[in-house]
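Contributing new records

If you add data, match the layout below exactly. Sequence lines come first and carry their own label; structure lines follow with theirs. Keep one chain per record. Anything else will be rejected by the validation script.
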Amino acid sequence: MKVLYLIQTYKNPEQIYRLVQIIKKSSPGSYILVSHNFAYSHLDVGPIENLPEVEVIKGKGGRGDFSLMQGYLDAVDWLLSNNIEFDWLINLTGQDYPTQPLTRLEKFLSKTNYDGFLEYFDLFSDYKYNFWDSREVRGRYLYNYWWLSGTLSVWQRALIKLPRIIINNVQPFVRINSGYGLMVGVRATSSPYNKKFLCYRGSYFHTLSKKCIQYLNNFSKQNFNLISYYKKTCLPEESLIQTVLVNSKLFNLCNDYKRYIDWNGSRHGHPRLITVEDYPVLIKDNIHFARKFDTSQDSKILDMLDARILQNSKSN
């Protein structure tokens, strides 16, 4: 059995190298595809492309619009077009990290009856799982958005806050979103969702079997209208994959993405940075990966995880 790790990156080269190296040390037989956004930062590919079965391609990235999702779809298409062998695909970013020996994780995947592990819920009915209010839910996926500017500064957000609240609350036709830049959305005249094709949402991070990946790749090429619709939504990467796979009813999907992410005190869609204080939680058996790490803020937590991963890898 072969696991493929798809890593979408855009900054912190040293942290990218470290992630790739720990994966190869813990899982020498794995394949790693790094999809790097060279438009954001340079990455010297030499230190990692010299490793066996590690490839680096140009990727797209961003938050809010379709860039991150397009980078993922492009990477998947590259893998399948180049006949890269794999049984499972695990997607990561450069700020993710494994929390247990990958040999243990891969043994788990070799025995499971599931076709995929991802978080999902019906966006318009499963409100008990949804930390957005109903207005926010509709605002993400029932409007067509246009970008007016990129990332906003603190004072720009403050300046926009009051008119944004007023505009969004007094009428249902236009939405202003400043979480990922300044976006203006207009209520879509029609949507792809109905009783037979529900809108699902969940974390972007997942572990999927090859047959799920193949289905997703084929579906995205054959359903131009749906992809075009999602290109105008806000945070499409948190809905498109779930919506396509769950609605297909072809796969045995586990509603558990096996990740640790702490959203307490998060702002503008960014989870809290993980530190050494999180270590007791990270080592639970049901957690395979965690995010978000930043070695400039706390590198000791990665040292602790390395020691656990490599020590236990020898006994697995």
